[in-house]
Amino acid sequence: MIEALRDLVATQLAELITFFESNFDPLRDMVDIALVALAIYWVLLLIRGTRAVQVLVGLGFLALARVVADAAELMTVTFVLDNFLGPAVLIVVILFQNDIRRALARVGRGFSPRFSEREESRVVEEVVRACAELVRRRIGGLVVFERDTKLDDLIEAGSALDAAVSKDLLVSLFITTSPLHDGAVVISHGRVSHASCILPLTLRTDLPEGVGTRHRAALGITEESDAIAVVVSEETSTISLAQAGDLITQLDPARLRVALWDSFSREPEPRDERAEADDAEPAREREPESKSRAARS
Questions:
Q1: pLDDT tens-digit profile of 15-60?
Q2: What is the pLDDT of residues 57-83, one digit of tens each?
Q3: Residue 106 — very low, low, confident or very high, per pLDDT cuts 50/70/90?
Q4: How many CB atoms lie within 10 A of CB 208?
């Protein structure tokens, strides 16, 4: 058994040396390996922190089990794993269809028209100010930024608006007496394109306690596209940001502004006095409440 294994290793090593002697080209092979390494690194960045990592680990264990079964001559196990791992490409496409769609959208990023940095700065600032006002009034809200992936096939119902983004408009849309308060507001190309939209909900079961329907909708739309979603919770008066299936919670207006600029891969614009006042107002609203609690205690 040991001699047979030794002969097999020696034969494979000799074939490998012969292959390298006849096909090795240092420059070409270095470029080839570098491109493959960059592609693998890019894929790992895409799936980092997602369920795709767990699935890849599972597939890796199955591949390792196939090697062990073949070495131990477990014919039945080898047959089953061969038939399961054979259509591996199809399995990967089915399991990672959402991640592949987002990756392809990122590859094509830059070919679609984007509104100017100045207009983007104004839109971000209006959304941050609106979220600060919603927190102050304890009103829930959900704002979705459409990016390169069109959301027409992912949103249901909704009313078309095509209006300029402003704090007053966003707040008025989410007030409970508004007929359009239930659902999400979609911002596309720097304008409010739709309101009262129904979004797909995430199927994840590992979400923290207290995450409601708005948060599940925000995660759902970001799992299916490259959109960015901002959630204001009426129960906790906190702001959350969802992107690529990840949820950042417990944000205040100032941190939301930084998180949005990080998501857009831009440097934050200088804030004006009005924005700083909006950031500070929710804190001032909560300060008397905290003092009254201390007095009662």
A1: 877 877 777 777 887 888 889 888 888 777 666 655 566 677 777 7
A2: 777 788 888 888 888 878 888 888 777
A3: low
A4: 8
> For position 197, which CATH number holds?
3.40.1700.10
Q: Are residues 132 and 259 in the same domain?
A: yes
CA distance 24 to 137: 69
Q: Can you say whether the dihedral through the CA atoms of 113, 117, 119, 125 is positive or negative? A: positive
Instruction: Please state the pTM of the whole predicted model.
Output: 0.57
Q: What is the pLDDT of residues 238-268, one digit of tens each?
A: 899 998 888 888 898 899 999 888 887 654 4
**Same domain (yes/no): 94, 130:** no
Query: Residue 236: what residue type?
Result: T
**Which of residues 107, 131, 162 is at a domain's end?**
107
> 180: domain range?
117-287
Same domain (yes/no): 42, 78:
yes
> Residue ranges of the alpha helices (H) in the chain?
2-23, 26-47, 51-71, 75-85, 88-95, 97-107, 117-137, 167-174, 213-224, 253-263, 273-296
Could you tell me if 215 and 282 lie in one domain? yes
Residue 192 and residue 57 share a domain: no
CA atoms within 13 A on the CB side of 143: 31
Among 39, 74, 107, identify where a domain stops.
107
* Residue 292 in domain: no
Q: Are both 103 and 237 inside the same structural domain? A: no
- Is residue 167 scored above 90 in pLDDT? yes
**143: three-class secondary structure by DSSP:** strand
| Cα→Cα distances 202→247, 290, 291, Å | 12, 35, 39
- From CA 161, how far away is CA 90, in angstroms rounded? 41
> What single-letter DSSP state applies at residue 225?
S
- pLDDT-derived band at 104 (thresholds 50, 70, 90) equals low
| Placement of tokens 């979609």 in the chain | 186
